[in-house]
Specification:
about 200 residues, alpha/beta, Rossmann fold, 6-stranded parallel beta sheet, 6 strands, about 35% helix, globular, binds nicotinamide-adenine-dinucleotide
Length: about 200
């Protein structure tokens, strides 16, 4: 399988690159390093089957050759990051998602969106099931992230129904582990609100 991973030098994306490469897949990792780190993928650079390209996926995805899977993980995810980069966050959730979907469409590839529990906003229901629609303030402090991801989900569904792209959406809840950024670790303190 040849997989394109956007945001592949980030916390989660780099682990996905590791896993796919270890099982023998080819990986094209695209990242603009806005919140990710080259150190996260440095051990893969030079390995057969791995290509890293520094690129802004909101501007376009230019990939030669066959593609079997597009995994769209690019987006600031930590509240301090997306509040520092509100326009970039909206751009990667909207234009970046559409660019990644178009690549999947022309390639006949499976498309997977890394979405978030934040599409539920400040939920009135606990725990949240997939049937719950959420409670989001469209102009609140988390809106650039929450609404970008909600738009990305809607766009993904529309490419599935209107264009026949094989799509999937993962709503990831708070995740932690090696390669998590220092700003996220601050967010785990008991006095902060890390939900994303
Ligand atoms: N970590 C979590 O707990 C969590 C929870 C829910 C959803 N998610 C989602 O998973 C994905 C990865 O999150 P993460 O925690 O690894 O964050 P991260 O900040 O470590 O990784 C995001 C990566 O995307 C890259 N990126 C951002 N904008 C880009 C652009 N325009 N072009 C190319 N690359 C770009 C960044 O440089 C970074 O490497 C995000 O889409 C996030 O919304 C994460």
């Amino acid at each position: 399988m040849r997989a394109v991973i956007t945001g592949g030098a980030g916390f989660l994306g780099s682990h996905l690159c590791d896993t796919l490469l270890a099982r023998g897949d080819q990986v094209v990792c695209l990242d603009n390093l806005s919140t990710g780190r080259i150190e996260n993928v440095a051990h893969m650079i030079g390995q057969p089957g791995f290509v890293f390209s520094r690129a802004d996926v909101s501007a376009g995805l230019d990939i030669d050759g066959p593609v079997d899977v597009v995994a769209h993980f690019a987006s600031a995810a930590s509240p301090p990051d997306y509040q520092r980069m509100p326009l970039e966050t909206l751009a990667v959730g909207s234009r970046g998602t559409e660019n990644a979907l178009r690549l999947a469409e022309v390639s006949g590839a499976r498309f997977v969106l890394a979405s978030t529990s934040e599409i539920y906003g400040d939920p009135a229901v606990h725990p949240q099931s997939e049937e719950y629609w959420g409670n989001v303030n469209p102009i609140g402090p988390r809106s650039v992230y929450d609404e970008a991801k909600r738009f990305a989900e809607a766009l993904t569904r529309a490419y599935g129904s209107a264009r026949g792209v094989n799509v999937g959406i993962i709503r990831i809840f708070n995740t932690y582990g090696p390669r998590m950024s220092a700003t996220d670790m601050d967010a785990l303190s008991p006095t902060s609100s890390p939900r994303r």
